[in-house]
Amino acid sequence: MIISWFSLVIWSCIGIFGCSSKQDSYTTWETYQGDPGSNQYSSLGQINKGNVDQLEIVWVYQTGDSLGQQSQIQCNPIIVDDILYATSPTIKLIALQASTGELLWEFDPALDFSPHVNRGVTYWESGNDKRILFTAGSLLFSIDAITGKPVVSFGTAGVTSLKAGLGPRAADLFVISTSPGVIYKDLYIIGTRVSENADAAPGYIRAFNARTGAVEWVFHTIPKPGEYGYETWPEDAYGKIGGANAWAGISLDVDRGVVYAPTGSASFDFWGGNRTGSNLFANCIIAIDAETGQRLWHYQTVHHDLWDRDLPAPPNLVTVTHNGVKVDAVAQVTKSGYVFLLDRDTGKPLFPIEERPVKKSDLKGEEAWPTQPFPVKPPPFARQNFSEEEITDISPVANEYVKTVWATTRTGEQFIPPSTEGTMYFPGFDGGAEWGGASYDSNTGILYVNANEMPWIQHMVELELNMGDQSKPKTIKDAGEKVYKANCAICHGQNRQGNATGTYPPLLELEKILSKENSKIIIEKGKGFMPSFDQFSEDKKNALLTYLYDESINNSNQVKQLDKNWIETMTKELQEFAIPYSHTGYNRFFDQEGYPAVKPPWGTLNAIDLNKGEILWQAPLGEFEELTKRGIEKTGTENYGGPVATAGGLIFIAASKDEHIRAFDKDTGTELWKHKLPAGGYATPSVFAVNGQQYIVIACGGGKMGTAPGDYYVAFSLSENQFDGE
Fold this sequence. Notes:
Blueprint (H helix, E strand, L loop, with lengths): L4 H10 L4 H6 L16 E2 L13 E7 L15 E3 L2 E5 L5 E5 L5 E5 L14 E5 L2 E8 L2 E6 L14 E3 L13 E2 L5 E3 L2 E4 L2 E2 L10 E5 L5 E5 L31 E3 L4 E5 L21 E6 L5 E6 L15 E7 L2 E9 L5 E5 L9 E5 L13 E5 L20 H11 L16 E3 L12 E4 L4 E7 L3 E3 L1 E3 L13 H12 L1 H4 L23 H10 L12 H11 L16 H12 L4 E3 L3 E2 L14 E7 L4 E7 L4 H5 L14 E3 L3 E4 L6 E6 L5 E6 L9 E5 L2 E10 L6 E9 L9
InterPro entries: Cyt_c-like_dom, Cyt_c-like_dom_sf, PQQ_b-propeller_rpt, PQQ_mDH, PQQ_rpt_dom, Quinoprotein_ADH-like_sf
GO cellular component, one term: membrane
EC number: 1.1.5.2
């Protein structure tokens, strides 16, 4: 819908306050996660402990483009004056009247790509030039914030490639961005999501010109010869290894002109025999000069990562009292359940961090790093050891069921290397902390962060790499199986069985649910969490499809009937990104009823005093009503999406599997209010005011953890007779 002429006039006459003054006071939500420092805090207090139970839904907007079970919305909307900007399940950009939910305009990128998750958009302005920058597929768009039309002076007719500046190797590889970038002057600074496998593109951080779309600088997270950190890799790693990407987003100190980028692991995630060394700048907090792209300092939170311990959220830029002195700091939450608190100017820890010995790997060719960093304070906000004492006790049957499986795995401490025997990850692959981030109240020095307490089990699977005559593919289907084992089995399972939550569906009897032609489109374009594999040759795609559709082996399917060069060509392709291991997938450890295998709580909300390095309280987040009825107290649930603390003494958070949004007393952790949502609110809420009235809006996209999908944005506020205005 095109915005009306009257609305255009009103909107343009209102004007926009300077970003820094409003955002510094935390009264607006013009930036992803509330402010450039990623603090997810609002100084609005109209909604408070005394009236939060009177909150009601004031509007609901339904995008109308849900994609079914794979559909999600993880977007944290931004609000500029009274216009809300967000994205839909199919990555349409929408502008809504923030107080009513009325659609003002919608931009559909209408590209030949498969939709993926998107966590937000970015606003830029210069005088009357007002733009929304957002990504869809491997492209970066610049859209006029008033009209919803592409800005033709940006890139090519309003769009440029996210692969720009990554080098020729990335041209055919999977590159998208799930988290928005930050604006510094006329620079749009952003990271990317790339493959988790050996075919990953490099995760370089780049600054695009917000006016033209040109790349202004590139920071090589896998250093090239002569660059700092090059010696922490094999000498040719920069040309072969990918990942080390800032997929979780970036924080900005506007006054210092410094961005703080959290990076993930190098790829392949779980075996690093081809990347010996500590692997800078993977798993690092990197302070980068926003103007030039030059490294100022870094701190590595995991050396030579073998556990997919990406830094999962932008760091909070905080000010704490340390040894009686105010110190500007960086607080980085992690999947492992720790907070790294570092001086913002130097990167030096404010509390001790110990390098402790960890176990060696017994996988072939692997050289695990001998030590890993453990913060001494604050203590971890998630349990660290899935010992026998922590096995679920919700029933004797569950306890015995879990104990039998638990006894077959390697567990008991952090950083146990991946193994063919089976390794327990606790906290699991999704934390601890995750992409929802943490909220920080600068008035008290307290950080609020939600956590998952879900164990996951992984088994490594050795692959056959020596392609001698006996190992070369004999049939197309045989080649397809090798392609599947190396690229697809880590998500869909070694036997195509999928995973328990439905995030990665089974691929058995595929012909009954999806045509071969549509499967090929998904392979080429990706879908949801699945990356594109368009870099595969036609022969490789067809071989994979032959295997997936269990096509019978007949004369036409015999390699010997094909071009004699086919065997050698396919063998070369199979070895292009070859590594000696795959794994059985991302598997949560459940009991026989489908509940987490560990004792509750399974999801928590935590308050951490960063001045003292102490945990003040922990509260369960979410519940299973059927367990409550059985007399099992509130257990908490897995959760995705972050908290927002407010000056009203509250913390707002959705995130939980039970599809509620809640308000907690931020002083005590007591749950004060909850409301059932039309679908799971797996996103971080936005808090803002229009005409003196405070609102909370949450994206309700569902789809995670096996819950129903949705395509809603829901706004809450007090009725007019319950507030006096501000």
